[in-house]
User: Fold these one by one.
Assistant:
Number 1:
Amino acid sequence: MADEDNKLKNAKQFEKEADKYNASQIQVLGGLEAVRKRPGMYIGSTSSQGLHHLVWEIIDNGIDEALAGFATKIEVTVNEDNSVTVQDDGRGIPVDIEKKTGRPAVETVYTVLHAGGKFGGGGYKVSGGLHGVGASVVNALSTKLNVTVMRDGKKYNIAFDHGRVVEELKEIGTVPLTEHGTIVHFWPDPNIFTETTVFDDKILKNRIRELAFLNKGLKLTFTDKRKDTAETDVYHFEGGIREYVSFLNRGQEVLFDDPIYVEGKYEGIDVEVSLQYTTGYKTTLMTFANNIHTYEGGMHEAGFKTALTRVVNDYAHKAKILKESDDNLSGEDIREGMTAVISVKHPNPQFEGQTKTKLGNSDARTAVDRAFSETFSTFLMENPQVARKIVEKGQLAERARVAAKRAREVTRKKSGLEIANLPGKLADNTSNDPNISELFIVEGDSAGGSAKQGRSRLTQAILPIRGKILNVEKASMDRILANQEIRTLFTALGTGFGADFDVSKARYHKLIIMTDADVDGAHIRTLLLTLFYRYMRPMIDKGYVYIARPPLYQVRQGKLIKYLDTDEELHDYLGSLQPSPKPIVQRYKGLGEMDAEQLWETTMDPENRRLDRVDPEYAKDADEVFEMLMGNEVGPRRKFIEDNAQYVENLDA
């Protein structure tokens, strides 16, 4: 009876709550309100990445004009107030009345989601802005946005505020018929981009340069007016992606001088492929669809890989480099040391999600396979010496892969959290929750001892490493996995390695590099970052990798203790102190000179420590610097050091 009473009571309560949930509680967001309410749905995030996405959306509109054959140049300017202006010399956004809205077309484009010339097939045959939300989203997420259109000898202007029209479209003058295009000037909304509204010139330059490579003959310029002397960088590559491959391989020793270039068309899909082999071990494969970097690859990448593997193996057997009884080389072995760029222009691209990171069109696979295989096969036949080098490099990679497979078994464990299989030098934490677990990679046994004594045992694990680990930029896979320090690190992480790497098995969601604040410490840190970047990239992409910033000085005056990072800070701080009692300055030559309490207080205590997260946004810059600093070519490294060296007075001298 009691159960029946409870059921009745619960049913009445449910009915009462259900009555409250009615139509009045359903919120309908009109116009661009939805964009401002959930900006992450449209630009990925409201971090620096999302901020820069605004610029890409506007540039893409100019690129679409170039792909349609109407624009020849795009000018991007960051103004003194950190607003951005993008100008193209395309046809100019239409200004006549759009029938469905009864408003000027340019106003519709900037105020209505999924409005544009990219859906009916008449405005653009190929477009990167697939979803048609770019212009309106930028408008919604800006405090102000102005659009100036020049077409048919006339000049028009319309102004917006937080996505709403504040100055109707009007004709503001005349221009020569030869002057045409669109100028967009926008100010990002700091209430949306609360992290930062400051554009990074490096991120902008990298993408603009990339677009110039992908659209041969198109001229893009970048001007930063925030600098004392405004400089304009011009990006213009008649060689297109062939020049891109050469750029990616600069400073590397290559198997043949000029990159192979293939251009073709299949059922309306334009295909471009360029590749070149280096003598190194790194594989760089970049894929693009309609100028969008498809980081996760897709069908165009699959078509290229299939064709490359088939053609190289066919040639190897025909040339008797591989015997009839020999197994084919794997695609992974054939691609070792290769740098390739694949770019397709598809009239109806199907991307996985709004972020557009993977191309799903199956016909793109066929298009790339057919366009690439015939030309590459001819190249191998006409260049037998180069062809032999490519095959022999694949054979060498195969032998190294087999050796690496044996070594990799050492790093495998039945379970990522199985303590019995962890390396003996690891002082593990007691929690099994990766979300709160931190692994400190500490330089030297002495500092490792202090860290073990001073740590929080619940959340903090300590792994001391001895000296400088192997430079993986110069090493093959079998050598890497033969290195004891590297094997120990991967065993501790529980992620596996190389092809077996699985970031979801990471035992720690904070991987903290803690090295001395000196040149040797910086070198060890760079070696570790090179390892993480090349073979543990998902850890960086997830935001799991951090760099600890230990202080360089301790100043003690009576009971007052102050930690400082630089010579300049020390000088200024000493100048601010009273002469009595006399301050005592201690310079930490290494972490091992700190006792457990000092190390905890300055570098490990979550309340006081300073950690720099390794940001995936700067991946391209990092890639270039790692290649330059850690690779085989001396010349570029020497020039980089000479250009960036800072000479400071040694206080210990």
Number 2:
Amino acid sequence: MGDTVTPVSESEIFRTGRRMVQLAVPGAQSLAGRAPLGDGAPFRVLNGTEVLWEGNAGESFDVTPQSPNVYLVSENAENVEWGNLARSGTVPTEAGEVNHIVLRGENIGQGDAGPALRSMLGRAAAHGMRGGSVTLELPKGEYHFYPEGALHMSYYISNHDQQDIQPVGLPVVGQKNLKINGNGSVFVFHGAMQPVLLMDSEGVELNDITIRHDAPYYNEGKIVHIENGKTTLEFGPQFRWEVKDGQYYLMGDGAPKRAYAVLAFEADGRMVATGKAGDMGWPSRAEQVAPNRVRFDADASKMGLKEGQVLVLRHYGRPHPAMVLYHADNVTLNRVVFQDSQGMALIAQRSRNISINGGGCICAPGRVYTVSADATHFSNCGGHISVNGALYEGMMDDAINVHSTCLSIAKVASPTEIIARYMHGQAIGFEVFAKGESIQFIKGKTLENHPQLGKVAEVEWLNEHHLRIVLEAPLPEGIGVGDAIENADWYPSVSFTDSTVQHNRARGTLFTTPKPVLVEGCRFLGSSGSAILLAGDAQGWYESGRCLDVRIVNNLFDHNLIQRYQFTEGIISIYPMVREPAEQKERYHRNIVIEGNTFLTHRVPLIYAISADGIIFQNNRVEFDDKHAPMHGGKPYVLQHCGKTDLQKF
């Protein structure tokens, strides 16, 4: 009896990125077809760990991936029409192997570890597809990964610069029930690349691994001399830079980039309390005056700085986070440490049930900063997110940010058909809605959530900025162009417990989800802005998900808000971006309990709140001092357009 041949319909292809489409190939089926016509070679077919086929435009292929998905990639053109795709073979009706195997990564610590580890991960994926589980055991060591040995993939990453191709050093793709034991190993990534990707996987556990780059993305220079309006910085040997034609360039990923700003730290890692925005403009005009010293055309003393302090020279690019979770469910990270990144440390999207135990973002010896943006970021996730016992320090942004992404209604084609637009350039492309999922309608000017949910009957990806959505029922009355929509099925609950956030830019934690949020037993030490922010907007970043159940209990807040930054007007800042709060009939955030905490603080608001109802602030120990300049006249509470409150008196 011959194999059954099943043509692949257009609706089965998911557009993962600009140059890559994904297709499910269940069981041990084969996939045949041809590459698109026209420019775009080389064309490739991947299984998530290796290249199965490579060819030119119009050439035919026939592959058996031995994993649940294939990825169709072009390097030089968008994949629009992969022609005449068809599956063949019989899908197994029940699992075969159900045993557990151990793969030992011996003798892969020399040279580029990427190809050897990918080969092992390919074996693990095939075993997992048959119902088994796998432990990948790595001897403690230092493993190096290079762009030349990376797997070229393409996918959208929320809140990052959108790259056409992501060279992935360690693709953990198409895995089921996989445990990777690093045993204290360090993974070192070279050049511009995506270090780790967990995609289309379930039940993955990573243990005892440190992730860093061979050279930091930003540079740190100690102020050794200020004279005649110029400042001399001394750089350690781990930092890469060059002075060319009188301009200073950061060379952390091998490509020259100008430093537009600096952040100032004390030598012990504490941020300098400037009372300003944190980022300070910095000229690139400079001259090299010694092998490890550069003199800049800047007077640091006029910025309130002095010799002995450390400046982090930075720009604003976010090309590659250190780790991406995409369609990755039931993931556990135990004692995984990020020492630096070329973007965020961990970004998760469309993933469920993520647990982080220990580890975090921890400064390498002799360094004061870790990652270039957020430590952890969860965009359109579900299930439960748990962070316990972690340390987050020296980040350029938040320790954790949990939110949904809302899209603007750009056009109402009919009562049941809308065109929705991704509004922020760093939050485009990845799927926010799928057929059968629920829609929350949001009034754009007031952020009020409509009580009636919608249901997606059909969704069509028009381009990376626009979706066509067909609804099962007409739009609710009063919802139209300029309003927003978010996915009501993808909200996570969060517990952030027994963790430390210290000496970071921006905010300590940021939550925007209607599911329960618990912050308990944590220490917020010198976060430059608010320790906790409850946000939400249908403008700017379009990050949404009102908070309806938040408990902040038994934490230590020790001198936060030493600098001004976005939405950081109180130690706990409840700051949704509401364009017309006076028009609201219902407050955006609700039911926020703050009890049993200790606040050691200069005279800044303990709570700054806009559009909140049901705030309880009781039984907290508060000690005020005058270590830093006050804000808002030293008032303990600043409330605007808020409802019921129960606030401790001073």
Number 3:
Amino acid sequence: MKNYIKNISLYFKVVKEAALYSFIGWILVIALIQGLPFYISKIQSEIIDSIIETVKTSTIITTGLLTLILTYISAQLVSGLAGSIRTILGSTGRYKWQTLFEFKLLKKFIELDIARYEDPEFKKLLQKGIDQGNQWSLDRVGAFTLVSLFPALVKIVISASIILYFDWKILFIIAFAEVPPILNRIFFDRAEYSIWAKKETETQMRYFDLRQHIRGNNARTELKIYQIGDYILDKIKHMYDSTVGAVHGYEQKRLYINIFADFISAGAYGWAIYQTILHTLSGDITVGYMTFIFGAIFTAGRSVSEMLYAIADITEQNRYATHVREFFETESILKTDNPTAIEIKQNEAPEIRFENVTFQYPNQSKEIQGPILKNINVSLYPGEKIGLIGDNGAGKSTFIKLLLRIYDPSEGSIFINGVNLKNIPPEIWQTYISALMQDFVNYNFTIKEAIAISQQPKFLDDSKVKEAARQSQSYTFIEKYEHGYDAQIGTDFGGIKFSGGQSQKMALARTFYRKAPIVILDEPTAAIDTESEIEIFKTLDTLGNKTTAIFISHDMATIGRASRIIVLDKGSVIEDGNHDSLMKNQDGKYRRMYEEQVKAMVK
């Protein structure tokens, strides 16, 4: 209940912002629609009594009876109009709500820092709350509350009031008859939820992980070649079998109790009808009023059933809505307690100093013993072209993440022109960096917009776009297209599909367009031809002290072009120098890696 109140409060908060007046009108119309059938039923009962009285003395419709008929027609007309108004207000209001909610959801995605997205617990939260349409669970909770639960409660209150006014004993018996179904529903819904809750996280995470091997484009070729589709399907099926079995056991118990509850309910309603008939036969009420009471009794029972179904639907969606709300309540991991201004000269990159930096990932796997980086002491000077090299798992990517301030060091500090990086807000510091990571993306825009997106594409500079294309060597294929830099990217939009090398050159163009004082390149030329690679590094050389370039590569020829090479091993800096100086170290790791790669090439 606590989570439901919080969730529905968030729903109403967005509704208020999106379409307050439509919402208020919608609620009032819904309430009117629930009350009108009782009024119409009352008019019908009076018509019946009027007919009975009229036929005793005359066969002509009296003025009173005609008035009742006209009142009945008017009430039906109002009911129909109210239904139309409800539909219009509901559809327009909900569209506004969903549009605003989607915008807020996307904005929250943008606001959270990168470290949060690498948090395993946050990934689980996204899986449960956002993926596979669960993001709309909050909307469904609100809709079920307003469209199902609220109308049912209004009808229960009105019908209960009518029955209570007529005979409190009948209301008491009916209320008693509905207690077993309600308790049954609440108990077993909670019991089933506890089953899913125990396995939900792991089961869903594994399910979506396995499913991507069937539905994802990247794995489809291997799926066909190795013919492992059935094997993966069997794993998915096995994950659910035990859970479904437990749920089935609870459903059997629910059935037995439901049968017992149905007997009690049928007997109670039968007794209520019997008592109403006795009141009619004794002359306490008229035949018409009897039909009115019958309607109230049947509506009460039907409304309780509708309420139970609404509660069940709300309970199911509320689980996911809670995750959605928790997503909105999630904050970035990095905090800047003492924000400090930093000044970086326009034509000179900053000095960067790692001082006793040690880092261990939050929620790091128990399989990984100790920190990823250990006591790093290194300074990066303006204009250096630095190659980072080391075995897989040596800490290269982690080094870059700390420099990007995706994470803060566990121990030690990083200084930018003497200012502690912890005191520079990430959103400010990262404006001085342009990065090409291994998992770069392509944007299905025009080519020039896809390049300029790294730096205010609304005000893109065509000359800067072309310069970045030349620096990245992407101009060699762009200028062959019929529409050149205005060509559309993406086959889904009738545009271009780039090869792997072309995609990487486009990403490089985006990196160069930003003209940041720090450029980070992770495997920047993995898919690029040798001739283009040489030209790209010539471009880096011409940038001088304006730009410090840091690149990671396993290609010794690429690393050898760096003015300075830092060798990482098991989280520590073990060598630091240029190619010639490192090659002089007979027992050095760099020399061994270089010679092994050369030897492998000539075999």
Number 4:
Amino acid sequence: MSPATRNAAWWIGGLGAALLGAFAAPVPGFLDAGEFIAAARELGVIHPPGHSAWLSLAGLAELLPFGPVSARVAWLSAAFAGVAAALLVRLAGRIFSAREPDALSVTFGAVATGLTLLASGSLWLVATRAEVYTLALLTNLWALDAALRAGDEAETGDAGAAPRAAVEVAIAVALGLLNHHYVTLFALPAVLAAGWPALLGPVGRPRTLAVLIGAAVFLGLGYLALPLRAASETGVRWGDPLSLQGLWDHLTAAHFQRSVTETGSGGGMATLDSAGLLLFGLVRELGVPLGTIGLAGVVLLGLRPNRRAFTVWLALIGGLLGKALMQVDLRNPDDHGYALLAVAAIALGAGSLTTTVAAALRRAHPRNGFLAVATMALLVIGNVATLVASPDHAPWQQRAPDRLDDALREPTMPGGLLLSTYYATHFGELAFRAAEGRRPDLCATHLSLRSGDTDGGRGYARYFVQRYPEYAALAKGAVANGRAPIGNVLQGAEQHRVVAELDPDNQIPPAFYDVGPVGHRLLSDRERRLDYVPGHLREKANRGWEALYGVIGSVDRLDHPTRAYLLWQHTLETAHALRRGWIGPAEDALARAKAIAPADASLGILEARLAKLRDAWKRGDARAYADLWRGWAKLDLSAMLRPPAP
């Protein structure tokens, strides 16, 4: 590999990390991101297969001296993506130099390969948020690069260098297995093809045996992190890795795999159909021109079959097959994350075609080779500009609180309980509660309490019952029936703290973020903690209650249980708003409560608290205002409804 290609790898890697980091989400983001951030900070366990390597490395985000933790972990994903791009440039240089003597054209092709990867919307979907897939791509490309180097050195007769490269392959594969062994296993055929026969030559030698034993011990110690984290009882619990059977279920993700392999159960044609759909999605995320060039380059590589061509083809097939055996949903970032190795193969195809064209142009005139690179650069810039404009691919404008946060926190008291069938609730709340350093506002049961994607919800149900013993029967019924029984939930809502199912039909939209300034992610946790818009909350609450009262009707409101429930809810909302220092929402909620029970003594106490808060606001006494609501924030509902001590 030429020095120019090595230098290009560094530049491409730095560019990728900086670009993706600049447009990464400063808040937890959609689905898994919140869970990952919270688990990394709180020693929790994330969903199967546990991703031990990622969890261990994600703790390094704490070392950064600025930015909220959620943004720091997202930047870590961007950094992994940058390193992966650098490794892909190195890999491309090795592949292209074997058939093209023009070193500058090879460098052109390697640069085009790295830029094509960075222009992939599939990469942006997972590299701009806290996710494990960029680390998986990094370890797979590291293994491929080391394996190709081992094969090359074995062919040239370098007896010492080939075994060293093989050990590097073992390290990269072991890290990959610790992070996401499913994705890594589908990359192994490409790794073996790249290192053939160097990876099989030393089999049976004592040194090889020692490396294999060392890798096995390394994996065992790495996976030991899961039961240790599960024993910490932080509340970020999936399954039960504390037992051998539970650890096996967690590592194999047996329940999850059963729930997502329905499409693949149709046989070979169903898998082929899913692979075609996935390939179409990956090409679309690159932009049709750039993706078509990449596919054409992969096809042309196959016209001259050799070890390097087989490596690219097996990387493409492995990247597709790893997800095609399951359900494919191109709207889900996870599906693109599973297939990132296939994206890298398409990028290698684009770089290969660029190398060929650049070499042909340079033979006509030495300067003409830049035309091929300029064309590719324009295509890359065009697709990157499209990605930057997309909030799904570049979530840099997301900020807290998002609409989901507004919807849940508005009617929920601190420490309250929420039962919801909305699958994103638990992820997001754990992030706000743990990763952002916020005071616990609610405990939301996730789908692990009601479905079979991990261990049927038994692990989380145990944690849930520890926090709320009075709901042991409810948790048991939810695990048995696959869904929290709504009748028991409503009965509990009349007797205990907040228990509600706000979204029984999963209608909360996935894109639930408001827009905020770029510099928001640089604020400290303390500065971000009060980032609410009371006016927006007030309008939303009023719209919601107007719609609800319109449905209930004046006659139904005369029913005693209905009046009692409405009074309880409005009282709760008033107390919650006072704890936050939200004068407007508190006024509206109190007015609704007093319309039901004008002489209620508890409402008189809340009204007196509101008057104190309003008076401090009118006087402009910021210290008194803050002291009031921060003092109330430490009280539960019953304490808020008692007269304050003189």
